[in-house]
Amino acid sequence: MKSYLKLTIAVIAVLAVIFTGANIILHYENKGDAGRPYRVEAERIAAKIESGEEYSLDDYRYIQNIEIQENGFGGGDSDYLVKEIGGKLYRFDYSYQADNNAAITSFNICFGVTAAFVLLLLLFLFIKIIRPFEKISAYPTELAKGNLTAPLKESRDKYFGKFLWGLDLLREKLENQKSAELALQKQNKTMVLSLSHDIKTPLGVIELYAKALEKDLYKDEKKKLEVARNINGKCEEIRGYVDGIVKASSEDFLNLEVNNDEFYLSALIEKIKSFYTDKLSLLKIDFTVDSFSDCILSGDLERSIEVLQNIIENAVKYGDGKEIAIAFSREDDCQLVHIRNSGCTLSENELPHIFDSFWRGSNVGSNSGSGLGLYICRNLMRKMNGDIFAEIQESDMVVTAVFSIA
Description:
Layout: H1 2-31, H2 37-51, E1 63-68, E2 79-85, E3 88-94, H3 100-136, H4 139-145, H5 161-214, H6 221-250, E4 261-264, H7 265-282, E5 286-289, E6 296-299, H8 301-318, E7 323-331, E8 334-342, H9 373-383, E9 387-393, E10 396-405
Parallel strand pairs: 5-7
Antiparallel strand pairs: 1-3, 2-3, 4-6, 6-10, 7-8, 8-10, 9-10
């Protein structure tokens, strides 16, 4: 805001300097010889008289009459000037009305209109862009702090309406994710407390049986066998609780929403090309996309973009940085999109695990990651009635996304 005000003041100052300077120059020219063309004509005629050349007043616009002084100049109401030529005085009568005032007036009008347009433009930018942007500039910071409850006011402004809508959509998504995360934490704590309580009972029974056996309280062999069976039953009960924990931990913990619809393959590929053509060019990676026959696919366009982006990002991170290529093929009612990157260093026995959650291969090196990228891709593709698989062809990694044709 302050920078814009400084810019506005600077523009006004420059306009004022230009206006003042131009008027000074125009007024100076109006008073000087440049604004008196009759003097130029008088000089030209004087030069011809002095050289003895003939001249005609019809050829001149301002000089009306020339008179030689003999017994003094006669009277007259016309303007004149006197020049000495060859020892004689000549009177040059002229008719001239300075019209530079009209030029000054025209300049001032044009400059005034231009200055008004510039100032109105600055005012328009302030009202429509600078001030609205100033109001929302702190909003991303509030989102980063976790202040997600206050919605943005709706705006029909064509410059920021869509931007504000997107920010509010982001706020709602973050708020929903936060609520889901809190609910998951609560659920996990409840489950841990419940299981801890449930496990305590069979553990207590086992502990009592163990102490009884330690003190040899049971003399009858049948009773001892019954106690052993009870201990085994309680162990099975505890094992059931442990299996429940493992199952709950292995279930899908990501809330991946998919809005299945229909979209063109070309729309998907154009998005990918527009994002990665320049990026991979800067990384000196050869990026090629084969030709394809357009078709309508079934699924979520945004989620499909997310899947292909995830695959390409992995290709950038774990390939040799030489080539990434996208190819296409069809099988039955499915459209296959193959993403190939050169320089695969993953072993064959690791290949079946790359779609598991939190799994990272031996080729990760110093690259950071969570091991969830391809796991998310697989879940998204299956929710869109598709699939994803990977294979190693010679020294290249090929990941194929399978889409259903609508």
